[in-house]
Structure formats: C-alpha cells, structure tokens
C-alpha cells in the first residue's frame, strides 16, 4: 500500500475493513470430562480435562486507546493522524468480529466431531447466522462511507460491535447442546490446527497495520514509531505478569514521579535502553505463550505428562527472564534517583509487585491505632512516635530478605501450582507439592521476632490499654491457666503460621489460606 493509495481510500470515504478469519474466544468452552484408561492415539483422557488457555493468543496487541500512545511518541500532522486512526479502528474491528465468528466455529466443530454429522436444524441456524452477519457487515460499510466525522464513524463501529456480540450470543445459545465424550483426540487436533492458522493470520494482521502506518510516516519519524511500539507492548506487561516484578512498567512509575528537570533529562538515555532491552524479553514471552496454546492442545491429545511438565518449565524460564531483566533495571534506576524520589519509586514498585510483603502489617496497624488513642500522656505519645520510626526501620532489612527469598522461591512454587492445575488431565501423573523454602521461612521468622520485640515495648508503654489494639488478641492470653491441650493447640497454630504465613504479618491472607488448602489436599491424596 502506497501513500497515494491510502490517500485515495480516504477520499473515497473510508478505508477497507480488514477482516479476521481465525480468532478464538478467551477459552474453548465445554471441554468437559474425558475418559480414563489407555491413551493410545490420544483418544482417551483422564477424568479432569481442562480447557486450553487461549487468552494470550486471543488478546489483541493493538487496541483503540493505543492511538494516544502513538501520539505521545510521534508528532503526526493532521493527515497522518487521520490515516493511522482509521487503520487502527479497522484493525480493532477485525479482531472484534473475528472473536464472534470463531466462538461459533469452535462450538460447531465440537458438535460436528463429538456428535457426528451436523444436524439439519443446526445447519439452517448456522446459514441464517452467516447471512445476517454479512448483511450487518455490508450495512456498516455503507454507513461508514456516508459518515462525515470521526465521531460518527466511531459510533457506527461501536454499534456494529454491540450488534455482533448480541447476534453471536444468541446463535451460540441455540447451538449449544450437551455432548457425550466421543472423540476428544480429533477435537483437540482440529483445535490445534485452528490455533496455528490463527497465529499465522494474527501475524499478518499486525504486520498489515504496522506496515500501512509506517508508509505514511517520514523517515525522521520512524525511530519515534519504534518507541511507540515498545510502549504498546509494555502495556501488556501487567495483564500477562504472574511473578513478582514481571508486570511493572517502570517507565510509567518514573513518569509519575515529581522529578526536577535535570534528573528527568538525565535518565532519558536509561529509559530508552530500558525500553529496548525489556521489549525483547516481552516479545520472547509473548511468542512462547502464543505457541504454547496449540502445543498444550496437542499434549493433552497425546496424554504426555512429561511434555506438559516441559511446557510449564519453559514458560517459567521465559517469565523469569523478563522478571529478572525488569528487576535489574529497577535496581539501576533506584541507584541514580535522588533520595526522596528513590523512596517513592521503590515503594510504588514494591507495593504493586510484592504487596503481601510491603503492605502495612499487624505492627503498623497497632502503632497507628495506638497514636489515635484518646487520653494518652505526652510521654506515651512521644515514646510511640519514636517506636514507630525505630521499629518500622528495623523491619525493612527483614522485609528485604523475605522479598529476596520470594524472588528465588516463587518460580518453583508457580511451576508446582501449574502442575497441580493440569495433573488431573493426565492418567497416573503426580506432583511434588513441596518446595524447600528454608530461606523464606527463616526470613519470616526473623521478621516476626522483630515485630514481637516492638509489640512488647508497645505493651509496656500502654499497659492494660494494649489489649484493645487490633491484633493484640492474637497473642496468647496471659490471664488464662495453661493446659496441655491449649499448649498443643498453640504449638500446632505456630507450626501452621511458620509454614504458610509467607509475609510474616501474623495472619493468613486469602492467598496463604488458598495455598494451605492446596497442600493439605495434595498430602491427603486429593485432586
């Protein structure tokens, strides 16, 4: 496509809508239970077959709000802006329509393979659906050609997207039927082919948008365009990250800091290096996640637990690569920032990536509540304020040790969690649900002891009023006589907290309770 071609298309009223043929739903629906037994030829499966995760390959790289990112990096004249806006809108339309179409295609393939020939009624419904969809497409094209403003075109596309979603939802609700497991191997094989075909088509669409857009740019704008594409890919970091440090876009955090002009200009070269180096890691992770979906479909069909474990391990490695690259840059930026900015930068990233460790814990809540008590003497207030500074400072080294241990141990725990998620789909497969975790437990125990010292000091300052503080009642009551039974209960409670209270805050949060349930189920031989 040349610049003159694009210009002619604009003069005619609208750019052509680039349609996607293969785009799947967020998950293949209805992949119910398979049958246990022999897995020769991939025809038999374990009793807990899971849906293949398709989110990574069905989530579009470009969305309409990316136009703001492009404008923030590239200075466009009015004509360039209009062309790129139209190209992007058409690209998004193609993805949206493709999602609706492929939801139906997957359902129809499932009916055809698992139930045999397509029923006559289902065929008529499908043909009526396809005809209606084509009529809606033609109507949208005509209306776009008649539209005079970008606002009108945006409204037309929005209405079309809503109508397409409703049409697809209605068609799917009439097409869905209860199915008996008959030939999951054939279904998974066809699913894998559709996924790979879509990956090829997806790449074509993305290249079509980027190449058409760059054709309208001057050579002097291409470097800025590259930086804009880096920003687009970083936008996906938070949605795809699962390991602490994997999902933080450090550029956004730094831009939000109140930096002086000299400091901000001084880190510009580092920001460009960061954008380039982290972009290669993001692309590596994205490429793996795309290829993993059809590979998992094949692997379930083969019934190969060895291959499934290898896929999980490989995914962990590409995620670790991105996470470690990001955390290395996090340390590098912190070294060059002024003290106040460094504190805010580290606090924001740590709270977003390691919140269970750095969010205020029991001691922080107790100190805050103590300072809000009425009737305290001036000496008590001064003592608590001094304690707040010294105690919270004493926890920082321990929190850093807990974070370091978490960075080291979390990939192994993630691998185990993923294996537990998939193990039920493979006959005879087992998972070792334990990791060593000694460093993390030691760091948490040290932090708990430091908190205990501070809480005892706080109790000495407040006296009897200490017991009214939130969290104070979690300690053993001293006014009750000890018994063998209560001592044993406390011992068991201490063991549970030592094992599962990963952030050392004296309580089990939702994630920690969930992990406790998983491990106990695994130890009892449950699913």
Order of helices and strands: HHHHHHHHHHHHHHHHHHHH
List low-pLDDT spans: 1-48, 176-182, 475-485
Principal-axis shape:
globular
User: Roughly how much helix do the residues carry, as a percent range?
Assistant: over 70%
Distance from first to last alpha carbon: 55 Å
Overall average pLDDT: 79
Count of discrete alpha- or pi-helical segments spanning 4 or more residues: 20
Estimate what percentage of residues fall within beta strands.
Answer: under 5%
What is the radius of gyration?
29 Å
- Let me know the largest β-sheet: none
- Kindly state the number of beta strands: 0
In terms of structural class, how would the helical and strand content be classed? mainly alpha
Structure in words:
It is a single chain. With 527 residues, the protein is an all-alpha fold. The chain contains 20 helices and no strands. Helix 4 packs antiparallel against helix 7, helix 13 packs antiparallel against helix 14 and helix 13 packs antiparallel against helix 17. The chain is globular, with a radius of gyration of 29 Å.
Secondary structure elements and their pairing?
Blueprint: H1 3-12, H2 55-58, H3 66-73, H4 78-115, H5 120-146, H6 150-175, H7 184-215, H8 222-235, H9 237-240, H10 250-256, H11 261-266, H12 268-302, H13 305-336, H14 339-353, H15 355-358, H16 362-371, H17 378-422, H18 438-462, H19 484-500, H20 510-523
